[in-house]
Amino acid sequence: MSGKRSTKRRLWRWRSNPLRRHDDIVEAWILLVMWVVILVGGAILWTVTARAADQEFAWQRTDRHAVPAVLLTDAPQSTSTGNDGYRTPAKVRWTAPDGTTRTAHTLVPSGLRSGTTITVWQDGRGALSTQPPGPAEAGVEAVLFGGGAASGFSGLVYATAALARWRLDRRRYDQWGAEWDAIGPRWDQRTG
C-alpha cells in the first residue's frame, strides 16, 4: 500500500485537483522534460563522445611508432629511494620517417648515461610524442570521457531546470504574499 501512496504523491501534479495551480502543471512539465533530456541526451552524448575518443585513440595507434633513440646527455639519478620509475628530461637523437636525424628533449628513465639506446615514440611527421594507449586502456578512457561529457550535460540540464523551478517558487511566493495581504486584515476582526 505504501508504494501506491508514494506513487500518488509523486504524480499529484498530473491529476485533476481543484487546488492545483497552473504553476504546478508547468513544474510537472519542467521535471518531465528535464528527465527525458537527461536520459536521452546524456545517452546520445555519452555514445558520441566515447566513439569519438575511441576513434582518436585508434588513429594515434596507427600514427605513432616506436623508434630507437640515443641519449646525448646524461639523465640524472633520481634522489628518491626505491624503483619508482622516475623519469627526467634529457636530450635524445633519433631518425624521422623521412630519413632525417632529429634531436629534442624528452623524458627518459633516470640514471642513464649518454650514448645509451632507448625507445621513444614519434608521430607520422617525426615529432616526439607519447606512447599511444593500448586497445583496453583506450576503451576505458573512451568510456570515462563519454561518462564525463554525459555527467556535465546532465548537470547543466539539472541546473537549468532548478533555475526554472526556483523562478516558479518565487512567483508562487509573490502570489501567496498578495493573497495574504488581501485576506490577512479580515482575520484581525473579532467575532462577538
From TrEMBL:
Keywords: Membrane, Transmembrane, Transmembrane helix. The chain crosses the membrane at residues 25-48, 142-164. It comes from the Bacteria. PANTHER family: MEMBRANE PROTEIN RV1733C-RELATED (PTHR42305). This is DUF3592 domain-containing protein. It comes from Streptomyces kebangsaanensis.
